[in-house]
Design brief:
- It comes from Bradyrhizobium ottawaense.
- Keywords: Membrane, Transmembrane, Transmembrane helix.
- InterPro entries: DUF112_TM.
- Residues 20-438 form the DUF112 domain.
- The protein has 499 residues and is mainly α.
- It has one domain.
- The chain has helices at residues 2-14, 17-35, 41-51, 57-82, 91-102, 106-139, 144-161, 166-180, 206-224, 244-266, 273-286, 299-322, 328-339, 346-351, 353-374, 378-384, 389-407, 411-429, 435-457, 464-467, 469-498; strands spanning 183-184, 191-192.
- The chain has a two-stranded antiparallel ribbon with strand order 1-2.
- Strand 1 and strand 2 (191-192) form a beta hairpin.
- The relative contact order is 0.19.
Length: 499
């Protein structure tokens, strides 16, 4: 009953005119950037962080959540129309969706994608509303050593999940952890890694790092790959609506996709890619029309898209209850919370229930807005694809620079933005994941302060980290997650040598 009351209070916050406007701006921007290949929701939130610096925290976070949901919707449009997923999570959708578009059934493919996203997003948001308070009750019992162990799990899982190589992921994480050391040590008052530059005494701004790595780095990377063949646009032919047979073949995949997406998205090493491909392979196995798979089966669009959007709600569970980002966009949203001096976690539910429940309730509204926006505006999204890339990325560079100057006018800050942009370009060029850098910068100082607090309470005894059952379990999980990729790779090489 408490959850229903909290949700009703959150809905009263979410339907305030300004918050409705923020949600509408968020879902519109999210869908637009999801449609544009290469520009995902993480990049958009990163660009808007400095711009929203002085706005209302609740409205800004509602807008960021709208961008997240909208990006998941929009990524399917390009996946279906031109076989170019706007997000990696839309890759499974492209397998059957693009075949349907080429067969003149782009309309039903886009419709089942939009309606499936709405169904899955709504069910998963209900799951978020009821699961979050239970997790918060559990997390309230955490001591400093438990929080430190939880951060270790986050570091390892984020490093191992993003990108193909665990070593590259860990390298990216250590870059972020090193940047987190910059500034004045809160315990001793000594400057660390500031190199005599006064602007660095406050530490590295998360917004500057995020905008540099995501926006400037992406623009430089795209410019370096300028001369590539352009995708041919496939016009949407025939009816946009689904037939009775399409509805019959779609509703079960929508529900199954939700069951895959939400729980896996809520795991610390979840993400959206795993449930979308699990959903695709399940639908391929269960279908009554196996001959259509590979040629444009509607189940192959309905299931993965539902899983994709359900996982988006799932990733908000660890973010809001434990302060753990499990995707690049969740890391950007965590930066947004910190921008306003807010730390997601169990205390936020007690200190700012209006903000947290307003955010959760706004997700229901965002889902309805996205359904209304996506079906009639397909023609507009297709036209967005025709924007020349040089114009698009030149605009991104200008917007990134202006936003950084507005948030913190300083030559040092602009120089850091340029430096992080070059770092982002080099990381993309050599296939290093970018999200662990941001996670390291945000969570590194928190992990350090919790470790110091735990050691201070135990008078410097490091065994205190293993005396709590929660921290011992979490550290064991972190160790397993760290060693598992190397063990599996070693076994693979051993098997190959034997063969």
């Amino acid at each position: 009953m408490d959850t229903f009351a909290a949700l009703a209070h959150g809905m009263a916050v979410a339907i305030q005119p300004m918050n409705l406007l923020y949600a509408l701006i968020g879902v519109f921007l999210g869908t637009a950037v999801g449609v544009l290949p290469g520009i995902g929701p993480a990049l958009t939130v990163a660009l808007l962080l400095p711009v929203t610096y002085k706005l209302d925290p609740g409205g800004s976070l509602i807008m960021f959540a709208g961008i997240y949901y909208g990006g998941m919707y929009g990524g399917s449009t390009t996946a279906i129309l031109i076989n170019t997923p706007g997000e990696s999570a839309s890759m499974a959708t492209a397998l059957e969706g693009n075949k349907m578009a080429k067969a003149g059934r782009g309309g039903p493919a886009l419709a089942t994608s939009a309606i499936g996203s709405f169904v899955a997003g709504t069910i998963a948001t209900i799951g978020l509303a009821f699961l979050a308070p239970w997790l918060v009750d559990f997390a309230v019992r955490f001591g400093p050593e438990d929080y430190f162990a939880l951060m270790c799990v986050a570091f390892v899982t984020v490093s191992a999940t993003f990108g193909d190589s665990p070593i590259r992921g860990l390298t990216s994480l250590f870059i972020g952890l090193t940047l987190g050391l910059v500034g004045i040590d809160k315990l001793t008052g000594q400057a660390r890694l500031a190199f005599g530059v006064p602007e660095l005494l406050d530490g590295v701004e998360v917004t500057t790092l995020a905008v540099g790595l995501f926006a400037v780095g992406e623009a430089l990377y795209v410019a370096s790959r300028r001369h590539h063949s352009e995708e041919k646009l496939e016009p949407v032919r025939g009816s946009l609506w689904m037939t009775k047979e399409d509805w019959k073949r779609s509703w079960k995949p929508w529900l199954r996709g939700t069951m895959f997406g939400f729980p896996i998205g809520a795991l610390p090493a979840g993400g959206a890619e795993i449930p979308t491909f699990l959903s695709y392979s399940t639908e391929k196995r269960l279908t009554k029309h196996p001959e259509e798979f590979g040629k444009g089966a509607i189940e192959g669009v309905a299931g993965p898209e539902a899983a994709n959007n359900a996982s988006a709600a799932g990733t908000l569970v660890p973010l809001l209850t434990l302060g753990l980002p499990t995707s690049a966009t969740a890391a950007m949203m965590l930066a947004g919370f910190q921008q306003y001096g807010l730390n997601p976690g169990p205390l936020l539910f007690a200190e700012r229930p209006d903000l947290v429940w307003g955010l959760i309730a706004s997700l229901f509204i965002a889902n309805v807005m996205l359904l209304v926006l996506n079906l009639p505006l397909v023609g507009l999204w297709v036209r967005l694809l025709a924007i020349p890339q040089p114009w698009l990325y030149a605009g991104i560079l200008v917007f990134a620079t202006m936003g950084t100057i507005a948030a913190k006018p300083s030559v040092v800050e602009l120089s850091m933005l340029a430096g992080f942009g070059v770092l982002g370009f080099l990381m993309r060029r050599f296939d290093f994941p970018i999200a662990p850098v941001v996670v390291g910068l945000i969570l590194g100082p928190i992990a350090e302060s919790q470790l110091r607090r735990a050691l201070a309470i135990s008078l410097g005894d490091p065994m205190t980290l293993l005396q709590s059952p929660i921290s011992a379990t979490l550290l064991a999980l972190a160790l397993i997650a760290l060693l598992a990729p190397f063990v599996l790779k070693g076994l693979g090489r051993f098997k190959a040598t034997e063969d």
